[in-house]
Design goal:
Layout (H helix, E strand, L loop, with lengths): L3 E4 L3 H11 L5 E4 L23 E4 L5 H11 L3 H8 L1 E2 L4 E4 L1 H14 L3 E4 L12 E3 L7 H11 L4 E7 L2 E3 L9 E3 L9 E6 L1 H13 L20 H6 L26 E7 L6 E4 L8 H8 L10 E3 L2 E7 L2 H4 L12 E3 L9 H19 L12 H11 L25 H22 L8
Parallel strand pairs: 1-2, 1-7, 2-6, 7-16
Antiparallel strand pairs: 3-5, 4-5, 8-15, 9-13, 9-14, 10-11, 11-12, 12-13
Helix pairs in contact: 1-10, 2-10, 2-12
Length: 441
């Protein structure tokens, strides 16, 4: 059986390598770290989470839950590891990111069918079965090689990273524990703000000095992950209806819902650090310290990491890719993860899982079969391969991507439940159709 080459050992690449190996396919997994690092990564471990530590909602019959349920049924290694490294996060699945990356790395290194090469790849061959899963920080040399192979310019936008503070530097007398909408347990630290405090914070945030972009950079943010200062510039109340919305966060000390709230989510199993949820920003580090310490409870905060901004590279997938994540012109070349035009950790793992299955089919000299349109998997790759190439932006999994039901269901929760039931029936049928898993031994 032909071997598969996978470039990038992030979320998508690690999952793809595992899926190939469990089907008896030998894998060459290439990862450039630590030979060459990136501005966002801090370790050489596989599947390092560089932005948030959340894998989104675990509430039943939500779109993120549906995607994770399909991944579970397909035998996702990374989802299994994520659950073993989970930290309290209300209704969301969040992980201790260091423990998660360590366990993924150990699992990949243990597999006898996976050969790891710590080197930067700068050349591609359309003849070798290859999965490109180099993520948002694809090196300049490989980006140019992808552009050469695809015959078109690649795209990019700017993504961002939230700050992290030490837990014992938070003034707990000014905050309270709660989960938004009362979903799940009260695992989030909530920093309430009055109108006066909110106005003072917004003024300082907008006036804060940003990191100057280089001459060749044109800031082109992903709408789903805007820096907070960009959100604040769009209107006085935009933060209150965004990352600082107080809905469902009644302060037990006053019995009232605050004017606005900043939420902090546990970062690791030791609970000695917390990240500011949705507080990615592009301010200078000194300015971040000054502005963020205006948040009640964070007046003396010690920052383990400040917010950052980094380039996120992705291909114009609708023009280049099939629903099987294969290139139209080079079908032995597949893309997975954020570089294929999805946004989010779970979506990246899911596309890695799909690419691994499809590459295994190619290695066995059979035709890959795309997942059904009605499934979360199928809807995600349908969007990636059929969106308007002139207006393409990466997407998270949402019910908007799934096809409408054949029947009219007015109640939204009931409609979503039926969509999930249909998706899982279709998904189970697809799993039975594709090549069976072979024990790697």
């Amino acid at each position: 059986m032909t071997s598969v080459r996978i470039i990038g050992a992030g979320l998508a690449g690690s999952e793809a390598a595992w899926q190939c190996a469990r089907r008896g396919v030998a894998v060459e997994l290439c990862e450039m770290r630590p030979v060459r690092s990136t501005p966002a990564h801090q370790t050489a471990d596989f599947a390092e989470l560089v932005c948030s530590n959340s894998l989104k909602s675990d509430s039943e019959n939500t779109a993120p839950w549906l995607l994770k349920e399909e991944m579970r049924r397909a035998g996702s290694l990374l989802l299994e590891i994520a659950r073993s490294c989970a930290v309290p996060a209300g209704h969301a699945l969040a992980v201790d990111r260091l423990a998660f990356a360590t366990k993924v790395t150990e699992a990949i290194l243990r597999d006898r069918l996976i050969t790891v090469r710590r080197e930067e790849v700068t050349r591609l061959s359309g003849e070798q079965i290859t999965i490109i899963a180099t993520g948002p920080l694809t090196s300049d040399a490989l980006s140019l090689e992808i552009a050469r192979l695809s015959g078109s310019n690649h795209l990019y936008f700017y993504d961002s990273i939230s700050p992290i503070v030490e837990a014992d530097s938070i003034d707990m007398s000014k905050v309270y524990m709660a989960a938004r909408y009362d979903k799940g347990s009260a695992d989030y630290i909530n920093c309430p703000m009055s109108k006066e405090e909110y106005d003072r914070f917004c003024d300082a945030l907008i006036a804060g000095q940003s990191v100057e972009e280089r001459d060749w950079e044109e800031l082109n943010y992903f709408e789903g992950c805007l820096p907070i200062e960009e959100i604040a510039r769009r209107g006085r109340d935009t933060l209150r209806f965004g990352p600082m919305k107080p809905v469902g966060l009644k302060d037990p000390r006053t019995g009232r819902i605050p004017y606005s709230v900043v939420q902090l989510r546990q970062e690791n199993l030791r609970a000695d650090s917390y990240n500011l949820v949705g507080f990615q920003n592009h301010l200078r580090f000194g300015e971040q310290a000054r502005v963020l310490r205006l948040i009640p409870g964070l007046e003396n905060a010690r920052f383990l990491r400040f917010g950052q901004i980094h380039r996120n590279t992705y291909v114009n997938a609708p023009a280049l890719l099939r629903e099987t994540l294969q290139m139209k012109e080079h079908p032995r070349m597949l893309f997975a993860g954020q570089i294929c035009g999805v946004e989010g950790y779970v979506e990246s793992i899911a596309t890695g899982l799909m690419a691994g299955i499809h590459a295994s089919a190619l290695a066995a000299k059979t035709e890959p079969v795309a997942p059904p349109r009605a499934t979360a998997f199928g809807s995600l790759v349908h969007y990636v391969s059929h969106a308007d190439p002139k207006k393409f932006q990466p997407a998270n999994i949402t019910f908007d991507l799934l096809p409408e039901l054949g029947e009219r269901v007015r109640d939204r929760q009931q409609r979503h439940r039926r969509q999930c039931e249909l998706a899982l029936r279709e998904f189970d049928g697809w799993l039975e159709e594709i090549a069976p898993v072979a024990a790697a031994g």
